């Protein structure tokens, strides 16, 4: 089962995340997501546990737990939805350029 963990302290690293979940069962992977530009934690990560029962117990017991002064949120990860570039909204995009104030040309 893939588990989503958010509201992590920026100090938490992959190994820390693995340790949080290891007491509930086998952890096949633990990854804190890093910002590719700053190389700092983005405050969330993913943990994979092969045993669904152990994963459910970890989710129940760790959701809301305080880690480094922050209440973390733990839930089953949802499949990532494809993002399309056809964003909704926007509608009529009119360009309003400066209005003419009559004939002010004085040559």
General description of the model:
The protein starts with a strand and ends in a 31-residue tail after the last strand. The strands form 2 sheets. It has a 4-stranded antiparallel beta sheet, with helices on one face. It is 19% helix and 25% strand. The protein contains 2 helices and 6 strands; from the N terminus they run βαββαβββ. The radius of gyration is 24 Å and the shape is globular. By secondary structure, it is α+β, with helices and mostly antiparallel strands. It has a single domain (2-76), classed as Alpha-Beta Plaits, CATH 3.30.70.330.
Instruction: Give the CATH architecture.
Output: 2-Layer Sandwich
For the report, how would you describe the main beta sheet?
4 strands, antiparallel
Number of strands: 6
Q: How many structural domains can be distinguished in the coordinates?
A: 1
Mean of residue pLDDT values: 85
**CATH fold annotation:** Alpha-Beta Plaits
Oligomeric state of the chains in view? single chain
CATH homologous superfamily classification: RRM (RNA recognition motif) domain
Kindly report how far apart the N and C termini lie: 78 Å
Count of DSSP helices?
Answer: 2
The largest sheet has its strands arranged as 2-3-1-6
Which CATH class is shown? Alpha Beta
Round the Cα radius of gyration to an integer and report it.
Answer: 24 Å
Look at the helices and sheets and give the structural class: alpha+beta
Topology pattern, helix = H, strand = E: EHEEHEEE
Proportion of β residues?
A: 25-35%
Unreliable stretches, pLDDT < 50, 5 or more residues? none
Overall form = globular
Helix content: 10-25%
